[in-house]
Predict the 3D structure of the following.
Amino acid sequence: MKDGMKKEIKPCRPKWKGTMTDRDRFNNQMHYRPVDRCFNREFGYWKENFKEWPIFVENNIANNEEADVFFNFDVQHGIGGAIGLIPAFPQKVISETATTRTIMNSEGLLAEMPKDGHDTIPHFTQASIVTPDDWHRVKDERYRRDDPKRKVDVEALKRRHPADRDYSLGVNCGSMIGRVRNMLTFEGLAYACFDYPGMVEDMVETQCVLVEDFLDQVLPHFEFDFASNWEDICFKSGPIVTVDFFKNVVMPRYKRIDRKLKAHGIDIWWSDCDGDVRPILPYFLEGGINCMFPYEVNSCCHPKELLDEYGKDLRIMGGVDKIELAKGPEAIKAYLESLVPLVERGGYIPFCDHRCPPNVKQEYYLYYLDLKEEMFGLK
């Protein structure tokens, strides 16, 4: 392919029939208004799926963006800004063994990765930021608010996402504490919250200010349908920071961002936060984040439990148990049937609760897509 040319992808299945635009459908479903059918999307696949599922290999589908077009899902896009490290740390190989390679990643972490390239969470061995002196150096060098690369080309974005679009468009609100965890490592953040609480709060504040600067540039120029956020600060036993820290340090920054969003008519804000979110969910909601995404079931609970508890204050996207998908048609049907009342209620869009893993057989996944259309498509 020549530079700038898009790969032509022929969908393998028809788009779900409908009488509404993808944009109107998403907005209505998230606001408990009538819809023609459920919004149809998925969250993607492990890298191995693109090498192991024949349907991907034979059709040269190599990544999640291509898979979305290939399966003809409803369309949804987002706009993000330069709100992170500028410049990023140089990525380079530090050392190698027979089976692993240790690299410095773009966030300054030394990460041990398998040489065979299988999809896994890296083993982080060292952070570039440990003490307040480290943070001040990185902040001065890589978090300058006046860096010209942080300026948004609004006119180019307007051409890409016209006002009369038929798909929903979101604005990315970054991460208040997830990126901080990335820079410090899991263990580093746990220690720093107690050893250097002022440093951690300043890191959170820096993330917030850069998001605010970005939002100030784009919010006046677009009619956004939702906002998004990425944290990944929970695991199967709850959050990796204390509830008090989240409430007193993170939530106030959410509130500042939420005021900007609400002033421009944005009242749907989701957070991609894996794990058991229940201990901090009240403070997500108080801060303005009112949708969990992609909502992992096994580290939390069936989505019905939280939707029953919080009512229409909470929305959920995701929540289709990947463990059940791997068991085959009978288990898949039983699980989807448990979601029917949630889809009918509104404020809930079902899809696999994180990237679909390769232990889900291709034929099971295709059965799932067919059954989902049969149950939640246009009647």
Remarks:
- The two ends are 41 Å apart (CA to CA).
- The chain has 15 helices and 13 strands.
